[in-house]
Amino acid sequence: TQFATAATTQFGSGWAWLVKGPNGLEITKTLNAATPLGTDKTPLLTCDVWEHAYYLDHQNARPAYVDAWLDKLINWDKVNERLAAA
User: Which pTM does this prediction carry?
Assistant: First the structure.
């Protein structure tokens, strides 16, 4: 729910992220081309919420895109590999 909220409330273009930081797992979002790379946070999962990522399938319905993305497109085994390596 927190990840979906971050993705759907990102104003304009950007990304929602699941990262591992110094204090554990965090959900964050970034604007435009900003990323958590180069910080003390390790990206584990990201969702592209730029309009080009979802417009053809979902038009202006970003929440529908995020729901479909969360339900059908995440490779949790890969996310777990990244977490173990972080």
Answer: 0.87
